[in-house]
Amino acid sequence: MAEQVMQDRSADLKIVGNGTSNGGVFNKVKIVGEGEINGDVNCRSLNCTGTLEVDGGLRAETVKATGTIEVTGPMRGEELHLTGTLNVRGGLQAGRAKLNGELRIDGGLAGEEIGLFGSCELNGDCQAERLRLKGAVQTQGTINAERVEIGMFGRSEAGEIVGGQIRIAPHPTWKWVSLFKQWGTPALQARVIEGDVIRLENTVADVVRGGDVHIGPGCRIRLVEYTKHYHQDPHSEVGEHLNVWRNE
User: DSSP letter string over 62-84?
Assistant: First the structure.
């Protein structure tokens, strides 16, 4: 979405009930009910209670929403707080985001502090300083973050997971939340997991590479390569583990 910061932001957009508007540059956008915006939207703040469909891109400094947001283009924001359903087809960039509910993002996800709580389907890579996920994630791409924390409530899948500190395990309360029992026993499958400090439970992977590697219960790993420390729970299967030296 092209830069539009030089344009006037004095106008507000408000839709109450059921309404349609053209896109543009706004100060505040407020939706209460069902709103449809045709064209790109650039605003300082977006508040939505209900449903918003944007046929274009969405750029907002802050987003606070309860309900459903669908964006056909890219979405970008500094502070995002959403509870409900988010569907973005052109990729999502965020400074800090807390997204609760059912999420589908095509085109990748990038940000600093990203919190995902619920079911997340990601088509593309995820790049963040810190990623916290409570729920389930499905992606064939790469999750890359300095700190990755995944507390699973269901079955998850990722192509590769790369980071400084990586922790993957069933969420401690998953057995007590009946909503998530239908998702099956929490487990994550990945091709490669690589990091400095790795803690894994209920994880199936082809290769795990790290400095300090702890393989907890419920894991099946073909190959573990480590440079510093290695621990394996007796209730996990590891085909081969090697202490390797890396040339700096």
Answer: EEEEEEEEEESS-EEEEEEEEEE
